[in-house]
Design goal:
The chain is of the alpha/beta class. It contains eleven helices and 13 strands. The structure holds nicotinamide-adenine-dinucleotide and UDP-4-deoxy-4-formamido-beta-L-arabinopyranose.
Length: 344
């Protein structure tokens, strides 16, 4: 058994896939999650996939005392991956204080507890949302941070700053900020995946719910953008490839291989795909015909963004190499599994 890692938000979508990859690489994982956007059964399913049951504590990262107790109960935690956050962009506009409190105070609690318990390394879930609409594409880590479009996006920017300021103050902390592009898909076993709350806001869960008949049709938000087919372009990354980037980043932290105390990596494929291209890839990969229509633009949408992942490719020795077809098939198999289980 390798080092012990604390994963906050570990029963969530990206967290659960990362716990699987950490365990497959021999890490001893402790999950902290308040289950505000995930289910306890995820722990059983992680065990089914890996044969190992991760330790699980139903604790809110806002609760400093309880979080403190977790570090005491599981001595020797060597690194942290901090996924726990509220992530719905639209909801953050309606409930900004909930987002600022949850996303900022959770991180602050962790950063205060780390020196107390001798933990120095943390990986933080950041987002390509910090770039807004980049002036140059593909976007590199050096691109300027643009004013956030939502309170959610702002929490990611502020969290990055909180980490930088804490490190600059001399706190014995070092960090890797991973800026994810658009994570999609599910584990090949279809035992874990994304569980959207209510009507999905994100493209792929809406698409698979439409394909299975939960939604009547998918609306493409705009076909009059300045892109080859007029629909928006994103960098869709397979969640398992994304999870693997965390394992490599954790090796880097624990092996003391960081070049700076705060490092930033774009975690994307480097491939921009339009909404219409994604729909057609889904149809080709699954043989399922999708009912869709062209609709109005969605307020706040970025026209096009995709990653330049060259720095992550070179420095981490990591690439996102799963094809879009395999990725979309995994999303579809997950949707079929949810129906089989009567969940969605
Ligand atoms: P998710 O909602 O599936 O997972 C987050 C988990 O954190 C959930 O299980 C939730 O119950 C838990 N949680 C929330 N607040 C908590 C708290 N105060 N204490 C303990 N647990 C708490 O989301 P996800 O898609 O897996 O995202 C994980 C991280 O990655 C988030 O920080 C998110 O902002 C970031 N991110 C996600 C995307 C994306 O498109 N999914 C893109 C970029 C960045
Ligand atoms: C993708 C594309 C839509 C739904 C959001 C957050 C971002 C990040 C990832 C965390 C866009 C189009 C969507 C639909 C559509 N999260 N679309 N019809 O907007 O790139 O990013 O999630 O950090 O911060 O903003 O992802 O999946 O919502 O949309 O046409 O019903 O699909 O316009 O072009 P987005 P998304």
């Amino acid at each position: 058994m390798k080092e012990r890692i604390l994963v906050t938000g570990g029963t969530g979508y990206i967290g659960s896939h990362t716990v699987v990859e950490l365990q497959n690489n021999g890490y001893d994982v402790v999950i902290v999650d308040n289950l505000s956007n995930s289910r306890a059964e995820v722990v059983d399913n992680i065990e089914k996939i890996t044969g190992i049951r991760p330790a699980f504590e139903k604790v809110d990262c806002l609760d400093y005392e309880k979080l403190d107790e977790v570090f005491t109960k599981y001595p020797g935690i060597k690194g942290i991956i901090h996924f726990a956050a509220s992530k719905a962009v639209g909801e953050s506009v309606q409930k900004p204080l909930l987002y600022y409190r949850n996303n900022l105070v959770s991180l602050i609690n962790l950063l205060e507890l780390m020196p107390k318990h001798g933990v120095s390394g943390i990986i933080f879930s950041s987002s390509c949302t910090v770039y807004g609409q980049p002036d140059k594409l593909p976007v590199t880590e050096e691109a300027p941070i643009k004013k956030a479009e939502s309170p959610y996006g702002n929490t990611k920017q502020i969290n990055e700053e909180i980490i930088r300021d804490t490190v600059a103050s001399g706190s014995p902390i070092h960090a890797i900020l991973l800026r994810y592009f658009n994570p999609i898909g599910a584990h090949p076993t279809a035992l874990i995946g994304e569980l959207p709350n209510g009507v999905p806001q994100n493209l792929v869960p809406y698409l698979t719910q439409t394909a299975i008949g939960i939604r009547e049709k998918l609306t493409v938000f705009g076909d009059n953008y300045n892109t080859p087919d007029g629909s928006c372009i994103r960098d869709y990354i397979y969640v398992v490839d994304l999870a693997k980037a965390h394992v490599i980043a954790m090796h880097r932290i624990l092996d003391d291989k960081q070049k700076d105390k705060v490092e930033v990596f774009n975690i994307g494929t480097g491939r921009g795909l339009s909404v219409l291209e994604l729909i057609h890839s889904f149809e080709a990969a699954t043989g399922v015909k999708l009912n869709y229509q062209i609709g109005a633009r969605r307020a706040g949408d970025i026209e096009q963004v995709w990653a330049d992942p060259a720095y992550a490719n070179k420095e981490l020795g990591w690439t996102a190499d799963t094809s879009i077809e395999d990725t979309l098939r995994s999303a579809w198999n997950w949707q079929l599994k949810l129906r089989e289980e009567g969940i969605q």
